[in-house]
Amino acid sequence: MTELTRVVPEYGIRQVYNGTGGTLSLGTFVKLKTAPTYKNEIEAATATTDAVLGVLMADLTTANYGDCQITGRAIVLALGVVAVGARVTPAAGGTGTVAAATNTCVGVAVTIGAAAEYMEVELTGPGGAAMPT
Fold this sequence. Notes:
By secondary structure, this protein is an all-beta fold. Helices cover 0% and strands 37% of the residues. A hairpin with a 7-residue loop joins β4 and β5.
């Protein structure tokens, strides 16, 4: 396969703050903390119903600001096998997996995903959309 491509519109990046106490990795889906201490404070989106803000564009160590891609084609860490064209939802550790009914759809896989490997996902934008039942 060819090298992964990231496409980011000029309005597609937000600065976020990691106050989790640990490093959040490149390709991790993140959401805004419900009780933040800092503006735009995030944590990993780990539930299939999370309102996802976007995807981290690089590893982000604790107590630092970094870039979060909210729209365009992003590089996402896959939890398991994800087929091209599959709707993607957040999963354990902020990884991406195949969305099922009632899950939040945060994008569509553009390349094949495999466990602990990166894939390209065309993002739907902040919040995602609930899958129909």
